[in-house]
Amino acid sequence: xxxxxxxxxxxxxxxxxxxxxxxxxxxxxxxxxxxxxxxxxxxxxxxxxxxxxxxxxxxxxxxxxxxxxxxxxxxx
Length: 76
Known about the structure:
Number of domains: 1
């Protein structure tokens, strides 16, 4: 093989690798991940509404408890 053929093959491989890495990077973009998480949550909430209601109530109670503790604790 000649040097030009090797350089051309390396360039092609570099271009393919670049396109693969761009695809992987686009799948980890926050908008893409957020959209997948939102769609999953909507689907799961339709299938198990009681679990989501209980979970949401538990999270709200925990947040309110932490806020109350932070506001009314006597620690300085």
